[in-house]
TrEMBL record:
Ranges of compositional bias, category Basic and acidic residues: 232-243
Organism: Lichenibacterium minor
SUPFAM superfamilies per the UniProt record, alphabetical: Ribonuclease H-like (SSF53098)
Single GO MF annotation: 3'-5' exonuclease activity
Gene3D superfamilies tied to this protein: Ribonuclease H-like superfamily/Ribonuclease H
Residue span of region Disordered: 232-252
InterPro entries to which the protein is assigned, alphabetical: Ribonucl_H (IPR013520), RNaseH-like_sf (IPR012337), RNaseH_sf (IPR036397)
Ranges for domain Exonuclease: 7-178
GO cellular component, one term: cytosol
Name of the featured protein: DNA polymerase III subunit epsilon
GO biological process: DNA replication proofreading
Transmembrane segments: none
Length: 252
């Protein structure tokens, strides 16, 4: 018999591009650990419009197509967030694809300090051979069993996006433990390949040591972490500087 929460709630937000409480829609989809010790999508899902308190930017409206008129009579974020983020019975964790974005708005005071699983970071770990890792690309590259195409549309709306993310998370949870996903989510993303520049698309294992050390002192935390991990895999010290630091580093 379970003595604690058996639910993980996947969250997706749409925002208005206008300030710290700019959320204009929140969507959620629950996963639950069954008696068979397998994670399943639960019937608990939905979405709610949120009044961001000011007009939304045309740039963001063009993404999600939620109009100011649609949210004019909706509750404000601080009213609605605790209701969705702290469901009855508690959660093992909250989850989102590129969860750092949702965490900007779903602050600990609203969530009860729940842990977060980032399905983007976990996809990098579990499925490194895939060419891309966006929520929608994972949907079409992996074709999760049971995902109803129409239920995941329209894209860039909070309810359908949370639904799609939940299928990725279900498959992850049935490969590794929730504790492992939470641990990976606390670290930067472990990129399987160099994402930009002359070495773009090359696995880190193909790079020489000097190139890795140059990446290991860069500004991007995911690139830096990925290069450092490859150096550690080779038994090298990631803190060692290259003999010739990058030009950018010499300017300061």
């Amino acid at each position: 018999m379970e003595t604690g929460p058996t639910c993980i709630r996947v969250i997706d937000l749409e925002t208005g591009g206008n300030g710290p409480d700019e959320v204009c829609e929140i969507g959620w989809q629950d996963l639950r650990l069954g008696m068979d010790r397998v994670w399943h999508l639960d019937d608990e899902r939905g979405s709610l419009l949120v009044n961001p308190g000011r007009p939304m930017s045309p740039d963001t409206i063009a993404v999600h197509h939620i109009l100011d008129a649609h949210v004019a009579g909706a509750p404000y974020w601080k009213e609605i967030a605790p209701i969705v983020l702290r469901p009855a019975g508690g959660v093992v964790a909250l989850a989102a694809h590129r969860a750092a974005f949702e965490q900007r708005y779903c602050r600990p005071g609203l969530t009860g300090a729940a842990g977060w699983i980032c399905t983007w970071k976990c996809a990098l770990r579990l499925w490194p051979d895939l060419p891309r890792f966006s929520n929608q690309m994972l949907r079409y590259l992996r074709k999760p069993e049971g995902l109803v195409h129409e239920e995941g549309l329209p894209a860039h709306r909070a309810g359908p996006d949370a639904y799609v993310t939940a299928y990725h998370l279900r498959d992850m949870l049935n490969e590794v433990s929730a504790a492992q996903l939470l641990a990976w989510s606390q670290e930067p993303g472990l990129l399987p390949r160099v994402p930009a520049g002359p070495s773009r698309g090359r696995p880190w294992a193909d790079l020489n040591e000097d190139a890795l050390h140059a990446f290991a002192i860069g500004r991007d935390p995911d690139i830096r972490f990925s290069a450092q991990c490859e150096l550690r895999r080779r038994g090298k010290d990631p803190a060692r500087q290259t003999e010739e630091p990058p030009q950018q580093a010499r300017l300061f």
